[in-house]
Amino acid sequence: MLDDFLMRALIAGLMVALAAGPLGCFVVWRRMAYFGDATAHAAILGVALALGFALNLYVGIILVALAMAMTVAALAGRGWAMDTTLGVLAHSALACGLVAVSYLPGVRVDLTSYLFGDILAVTRADLAVIALGAGAVLALLAWRWRALLTATLSEDLAHAAGINPARERLVLTVALAIVVAVSLKIVGALLIAAMLIIPAAAARNVARTPEAMAVGAIALGALSVWGGLQLSLLQDTPSGPSIVVVAAGLFLATTLGRVALQKRSTR
Amino acid sequence: MPRLPRGKRMSLIATEHLAVRLGGREVLHHIDLSVAPGEIVTIVGPNGSGKSTLLRALLGVVAPSKGRVTRQPGLRIGYVPQKLHIDPTMPLPVARFLSLPDRQSNARIGEVLARVGVPDVAGQDMTTLSGGQFQRVLLARALLSHPDILILDEATAGLDQPGTAAFYRLIEDVRRELGCAVLSVSHDLHVVMSASDRVICLNGHICCSGAPHVVRAAPEYRALFGYGTGGALALYQHEHDHEHEDHAHAG
C-alpha cells in the first residue's frame, strides 16, 4: 500500500495533522501565530544550510527552526516589541534563505517545492521521519498537557503550583521546530503556520473544552488533508495550497454554524 | 517602629533583606517579612509601592536581586491572582479550570464551589462568569490544593463594596475551617485591616507593621494614607468602587 504515492501522501498529511492539531491550539491560545510563521520561514534557511553543507535536510531545518524559535523567545523575554521583532525576523529569515539557496552551486533546487510543499513526492524514508517527528510531538504534548495548559492560562498560577513556565515554553518551542521540519514537504514553508492555526481556529467553534478543541483540530486538519488531496487530483491544483484552502473552507463553515446557533439561542 | 513579637513557630514563608530590581529600578529593598501558620497578614501600600512585586517574589516568579526568600519545605500555596485573562480562543468550563494542574473529582469540585458560594457554575465557561463569580472560582481553585497559605493579590479589585465585604468574610471563614495562613495585598484598607492579625505598610520598603490599630496610628502610615478616619476612608473607597461594578468578566 505504501507503494502508491497517493497513499504515502495521505498518510504523511494525516500524521502532520495529528501533531499540528494540538500544537496549533497552543499557538492560537498563546497568540503565537506570528511566532509560528517566523519559525516556518526560517526553514528555508535550514534547507539552504542543509544543501550547502550536505547535511540531512530534516536536521538542517530543525536546527535553524530551533535557533529561530529560541532567538524569538529570548527577545520576547527582554521585552522587545514582539509584533515588530517577529515581522523583522520572519521575513529576514525567508529572504536570507532564498538568497542562500541561489548561491548553491551545481544544485538545481526546486524552490517551489519547499515554499509550497510537494506532498505527492513523499518517499518511504520521508514517511518514517514524519512518523517519528509527529509521534515525538504528540508524546511531548500529552506528557506536559496539564502543565502546558496551566502555564498558558497564567505564568503566576503555574509558579504557585510548582510549574516552571519557562520550561513549558521550551517544550512548545521544540515541538514547533519539529512540526515545521516534518511539514515542510507537505504544505511548504509559507503555509505551515496555516496548518497550525486554521484547524485549531475552526475547532474553537465547535469545542467546549481545551481537549475537545485539540481533538477537533486533529479531525479538521485530517479532513483538510484528505479534501485537499482530492481537490489537487481532480483539478490539478498544487497540493499544499489545496489543503489549506479546504481548511479555510472548514473554518468558514464552522464559524457560520456557530454564529447561526448563537443567533437562534438569543432569539 | 511598632512590631509584633516574632512567634516561636517556624514561619511558612519568609524573606531576608529581600530586594527586587525590575527594569533597572529597585522596586523593593530591605524587606524582612515572615508569615506564621494560621496568621492573617495584610500588605497595604499606595500604587507602585511594590505590593504585587513582593507577592511575585514570594511565589518565585521574579528573582530577588539581593537577599532571599525561604519557604517551608513542601509548602502548599493557594494563589488568587488579581485578575486572570482567559483568551477567548480557549474554551474552558469552570470544572476543567479547577482541574488544572491536578485532576479533581466532580464531587470535590461541587463541594468546593458550594463552599465559596457559587454551586451552579461548574459547567459554565469561565468567560461567562460575573466578576464576583470569577473571583470565587479563583478562590475555589486555590482551596483545592489544601493550601498551608493563601496568597491573594488585590483579589477584590473588580468587586463592589458589598461584594468585597462578602469576599473577605468568606476568606475569614475559610481560614477558620482550614487553619491556613492568609497573606493578602489590598487597597480596601478598612475592610481588610479589621480582619488582619498584622498589617504591613509597604512603600518600596516596610514603613511600619503591626496590629491593625497600631499601624493605623503610626506616623509612617499616616504619611502614606493621610489622616482620614476609617469611616471617611470607607466612603471614599465606596465612591471609587462604582467605576468597576460587578459585571461580566468577558475579556
Automatic annotation (TrEMBL), chain A:
It is found in: Cell membrane. The keyword Cell membrane applies. SUPFAM superfamilies: ABC transporter involved in vitamin B12 uptake, BtuC (SSF81345). It comes from the Bacteria. It holds the Pfam family ABC-3. The chain crosses the membrane at residues 6-29, 41-74, 86-104, 125-145, 174-200, 212-229, 241-261. Its main location: membrane. InterPro entries: ABC_BtuC-like, ABC_TroCD. Keywords: Cell membrane, Ion transport, Membrane, Transmembrane, Transmembrane helix, Transport, Zinc, Zinc transport. It is a multi-pass membrane protein. Belongs to the ABC-3 integral membrane protein family. Involved in the high-affinity zinc uptake transport system. This is High-affinity zinc uptake system membrane protein ZnuB.
